[in-house]
Amino acid sequence: MTTKQKRWQRQNLVKSMLILISVILVIFMTLVGFWIPADKTLTTQLAATETDSFRVERGVFDLRQWNPEIKPLLSMNGDWEIFTDQLLTPAELSAIQLPNEPQTIPIPAEIMPGKPLSGLDANGYATLRVRVLLPEDERIYGLKFAYFASAYRVWINGKELVSAGTPVTNPAECKPRYLPSELLFHHIDGEVEVVVQVSNFHHRRMRLRPVLLGDSQAVTRLTQRQIISESLIFGSLLVIALYYGVLYLIQRREPALLSLATAAFITAIRGGIIGERIVVRLWPQMPGELMMKLGYLPVFILLPLLVIYVRDVLDSPEMDRAARLSGWGIWGLTAFVALTPVKGYDAVFQYGQGFILLGSIYLIYVMVVYGFRKKNRGAYAMAVGSVVVLLAAASDMLREFSLWNAPELVSEGLMVFIMIQAGFLAWRFNHAFLRANTLATENAAMYEEIQQMNRDLEEKIRQRTLELTNTNRKLMLMSRTDALTGADNRRSFEEKLQKEWHRLQRENRPLALIMSDIDFFKEYNDQFGHPEGDVCLRQVAAAIGKTLRRETDVLARYGGEEFIIMLPNTDKDGACRVAEKIRKNVEALQISHPYSSIHRVITISFGVAAIIPSRKTTPEALVRRADQALYAAKQQGRNCVVLADEQNTFTLKDLQNESENNHQQDFQQDLQKDFQQDFQKGL
Questions:
Q1: Is the pLDDT at 46 greater than 50, yes or no?
Q2: Got the DSSP string for 382-403?
Q3: Which of 32-36, 444-448, 544-548, 575-579 has the lowest mean pLDDT?
Q4: How many Å apart are CA 580 and CA 583, to the nearest integer?
Q5: What is the DSSP letter of 188?
Q6: Does the pTM of the predicted model rise above 0.70?
Q7: Where are the transmembrane segments (predicted)?
Q8: How far apart are CA 88 and CA 539, in angstroms?
Q9: How far apart are CA 512 and CA 609, in angstroms?
């Protein structure tokens, strides 16, 4: 027989043994539920003091010999008085005739369907009473109640101190509320009467859980200690769920992270529902049915979640079918718990917990066969955690059937499992990080070379971008500047005129324009040529620019030999003074012009117009007025300044007619002059 065949036989033997054990376990746990005696009392962590020498006897709890300094907490276990099918207040109890031999019920106890205890059915109501005889001192005492049935009310010495839900006789009026409570009280002459009304029409089973009595400080410390402990577990699981949930959303490559985050979250919810019921304390008005669903649902879907998690961690294709079934099982069980009442899923929970053990055994088998054999390091971490969960689940099942006196351990077991898995995943991430770091070190030279190439490319791009920016700036400047004189061009001047017009209109300030024209510049160009004419234009523009002192003043070349000047915040008198100064400065240049009809040097004529901008006129109208004034200056002999006003300007129609006549006269004079020159050359 080959080694492979021997291994195959061993695997089959392990499978057969596990299946046999699992089937026997499920059958045993199912049958045990039906064989529980009707008078079997409930055993929980609060009943851990059953060895106390003090016990309730026939409705009396005699503590006159009790020393709270030595033993600060006692369980009120024993036979309480019970008034079945009656909801009585302390006043009503004192008014009725009580029998010599009162009927009693053992507390704590669990009443199963079809198995009444002391005449009380699982779905019924009753009044419980116990008289407590205490030492005669001034001490403040306390009672700690876990939840009693689905609803309960407590009176101490005739005073109602707490009500959880509404004990009723009519199932339709049932308002369940599963909430623990702590009551502090003084005794009267060493005697205390405790009356409790209970009813249960919501849950399948009626649980009358243990009641603790003790010194008020001891009761408070116990409650605080349990709340702190359960809050730490609750908060830790929520942090783990949030951390791995966010990590999964970031990476999306590790589905095991999502399974672990979900398992941690539902375990946290269950931990906040059971015990001191932290979630219910935070939300006192939580409906009882919702609380029950949140408490039961994690137990139903946790095992399928762990199956999916193990498949993802071990990366075992052999578990694909089990993982798919587990996924469908999660949705089916969630719908089952959400759509059925507590009586339905509680029965499945009580008699079906063997499947949790079966699933735990299956997970251990998977780890042994697929994990250890393939030397998967995650299998060892999961095996330890699974064994802890298996033991905790077995303990809880024995506790559920009142066969084991221990606290509920499944939440703590799951906490240990999740912590182990969180540590394992952290180790795996660290291992992956070290591998990535090694690869990064090996590729450091290549990476540095690429970085250097990127830096060189970025520097070239930066230089090209800077050159392009400078070129664009120059082009923009050229598009707004006259290339010959360096002054603004007509387009730039019109944009600035519009802006200043609107600004001065808002401020109600004056705006002046000076339109100028070099006298007889055509003759200068004709005689000296265009290059000399360009030199003359540059000299005139420079002289005008030197005369303007303010940054807001604008000089622009408006036409061939025409210049226009904008003077914001300047009235007509100021504009005339500026124009006169420019006229003198240009004349002082002493640019020879022997062909001028008025002077032997270059001169210039000016038309001035000023206005306070308003909505009644436009910038174009102001330009026309300055142009009209310039025309008037030419008519008055040139080399002068003319202000546009009613005395020395003309209407637009007159100016147009006169301009046409002047153009005709100038054209005729030019023809005669050219004819005379040509005739003299011919001679």
A1: no
A2: HHHHHHHHHHHHHHHHHHHTT-
A3: 32-36
A4: 5
A5: B
A6: no
A7: 12-36, 232-250, 257-274, 294-310, 322-342, 354-372, 379-397, 409-427
A8: 119
A9: 6
| DSSP helix/strand/coil, 279 | helix
Tokens 């540590």 belong to residue: 423
CA pair distance 331, 324, nearest whole angstrom: 11
561 has catalytic annotation: yes
Q: How far apart are CA 437 and CA 173, in angstroms?
A: 66
The percent of residues above 70 in pLDDT, for the chain, comes to: 75
Question: Considering 81, 408, 500, 561, which one is annotated as catalytic?
Answer: 561
**Among residues 518, 534, 524, 673, which one has the least CA distance to residue 592?**
524
User: Do the beta carbons of residue 90 and residue 134 sit within 8 Å?
Assistant: no
**Residues 157 and 188: beta-carbon distance below 8 Å:** yes
Instruction: Give me the numbers of helices (H) and strands (E) for the chain, helices first please.
Output: 18, 18
Task: Retrieve residue 14's tokens.
Answer: 């392990």
Contacts of 555 (CB under 8 A, 6+ apart): 487, 488, 541, 544, 545, 548, 563, 564, 565
Q: Which residues make beta-bridge pairs with 74?
A: 213
DSSP helix/strand/coil, 245: helix
Q: What's the confidence (pLDDT) of residue 69?
A: 86
pLDDT tens profile 460-489: 888 888 878 777 776 666 667 888 888 888
Helix (H, G, I), strand (E, B) or coil at 336: helix
* Strands (DSSP E) found in 150-210: 151-156, 159-164, 181-185, 191-199, 206-208
- Inter-helix orientation angle 410-442/444-480, to 10°: 70
Q: Answer yes or no: are the C-beta atoms of 131 and 192 closer than 8 Å.
A: yes
- Spell out the residues 6+ positions from residue 641 whose beta carbon is closer than 8 angstroms to its own: 576, 579, 580, 583, 606, 608, 633
By DSSP bridging, strand 73-75 and strand 211-215 are antiparallel
